[in-house]
Amino acid sequence: MNRLKGIVSIVLSVAVVAALIFGFYGKTQAGPSVPSNVVVGRCATPGVQTLYSAIITQTTRGAVIGNALVGPYCSLVDIQWTLSTSGTAANGVTLAWQVSNDNSNWATASTITSGITSTAAGDMVEVANFGLYSSVYATLTSTAQVTLTAIGLFK
């Protein structure tokens, strides 16, 4: 009888250890997956910055954002932009997202929009953010006035 109790207790002990090792207890289901068209940023402190807010008549750079100031590791920016021209004169506008490590030599990271010639336009795009500084750069094809606003959500 004692021998039977010993065998039963060993079998039960092995079963409990196996259950813990192989995860029979406490299993959880995986959470919902992120859709493939959504990119999750890794910014410690997301924030909104005005990137451009001016009436312009020539090719020019908007506000220079020091990426260390908007929050470390803000790898993405949602840029919402609007532009309009005065009167009926259209101006070809190209907006680029530019980055720099020295605030002097700039590289185009991505084109936000190009060849806009309508008298009013706007959209929202997501761009990658890297380097120490970033800025919206507007290239115009004529001297017709353009009112440009660009707001970025760093995330």
Description:
The protein is of the alpha+beta class and 155 residues long. It contains 2 helices and 9 strands, in the order αβββαββββββ. It has a domain at 47-154: Jelly Rolls (Sandwich). 16% of the residues lie in helices and 44% in strands. A hairpin with a 6-residue loop joins strand 5 and strand 6 (107-116). The longest helix is centred in the first third of the chain and has 21 residues, at 2-22.
Descriptive terms for the model:
2 helices; single chain; 4-stranded antiparallel sheet; rod-shaped; 5-stranded antiparallel sheet; Jelly Rolls; 9 strands; 155 residues; alpha+beta
What proportion strand? 35-45%
Put simply, the count of helices is: 2
Q: State Rg.
A: 28 Å
Secondary structure category: alpha+beta
What's the short story on this structure?
The chain has 155 residues and is an alpha+beta fold. It has 2 helices and 9 strands. Strand 5 and strand 6 form a beta hairpin.
Task: Record the SSE blueprint.
Layout: H1 2-22, E1 47-56, E2 60-61, E3 65-66, H2 67-70, E4 76-85, E5 93-100, E6 107-116, E7 120-128, E8 133-140, E9 146-154
Antiparallel strand pairs: 1-9, 2-8, 3-8, 4-7, 4-9, 5-6, 5-8
